[in-house]
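ok so I'm stuck.
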Amino acid sequence: MLSTFEQQLTHPFAERFGDTSDGTRYLSNVGPTPLNNPRFVHRNRALLAELGIASDDSKLLDFLSGSKAVPKSCATVYSGHQFGHWAGQLGDGRALFLGELRDRSGARIELQLKGAGPTPYSRFADGRAVLRSSIREYLCSEAMHGLGIATTRALALLDSDTTVQRERPERGAIVCRSARSFLRFGHFEHFHYAGNSVAVAALADYLVEQHFPNWAELPAEQRYQQLFAHAVTQTARTIAAWQSVGFAHGVLNSDNMSLLGDTLDYGPFGFLDHYQPGFICNHSDSTGRYAFDKQPMIGLWNLNALANAFLSLLPSEPLVEQLGSYQAQFEQTYRERMRAKLGLPLESPVEEVDSLVARLLTLLAESSADYTRSLRFLAQIDSGDSHVFAAEIGANWQQQEWQLWRDDYLAALEKGPTPAVQRRLAMDAVNPKYILRNYLAEQAIQAAEAGDYGQVERLFNVLSEPFQEQPEQEKLAALPPAWAESISVSCSS
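replied:
not stuck anymore, here's the structure
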């Protein structure tokens, strides 16, 4: 029941940092600006159930639309590096922190409203989100969850009659999103560059207390070493997961990086269609800083920024040591993911795995082949009937380089003990059939703007189970149409 939601919602961050004795401002208490005639586009019923929230309670709309304020809602302050440059103070410009609930396992889950109106950190903006960008975030966060990648999730998506002016007048929307924590690299950077080491330590201690209680009794330096090491490891693993599924974030500023390694802030993202290592999904990224193949390097760059913010907590030596482990952790995670995607035996030598993966990606790029479909169909290549994979590659399949790769690949598969049928099933379990292609999101947006929310629900359901064969939804796994090339997303999307 909704009363249960009200009773369950706690506010540890606001209570801890809302009224500090030294006057340090971590947050500002602010309420939402209600939407005009709000309505649900979609509710994530599975997630609502996990959090003990009744999805069919009509009063839920009042809370998630801003019509009923939460007494301790707030916006937090942070800073960060944007496109490689120090941007100074930023903060939750269009996000409100509602509080936290516990899921069925007892884990802490924080809730935010994105698009609920201006805050003290809106920087002269309106604090609103529009329907098109909200649909993209709502669908992609659940798509990433379905892919098994660490991410924030979305609880509900709301439309309204509120007019928001962007390049054109658009309808205002709100996404209620959830996360283990919304603390970013930028929160630590903010107080470090302000010379407030006490605040940096307070944030670090809060993270430990809330998420790593087993570390709480360790000496301070060990706690902070553990926390930084965790950030390095999880960042490496998450970005390796992105690279394996062909996901480009688009705006990897340090203020868009999670301390827990979760994928945070879905804006001008994009999944690869044809394999293009230098793919730039964000048309605001004129220099290609956040191109697909640069994401691993940018992850390390941002971790260096975080390390600087930890210098008041730790000497430089352990920070440098942990940073030095990033590349190896990234490579190991990426190798294991790609080994599984290619169905290569666990016994395969590292050099063999790396060579087969690198050669395959080079050939896919040269063939302009679709990344997701090619890897999905790769499971059939050893069946004696490889025409499906060959058709995906096209005429290039007859080239000598492809045939040499095929022979080496089949020879590697034959060395393993796993029967072919089991291997194919295992490959299908890690190679998605469905991803959130930009054209699918665009179709859902156009339908929703016309008042039809059915396509949003259809995509949400399909993307929740991206590895499953869903014959009735086969069209959603098709190659993108020619017009999809004209879709442009940017930091304003």
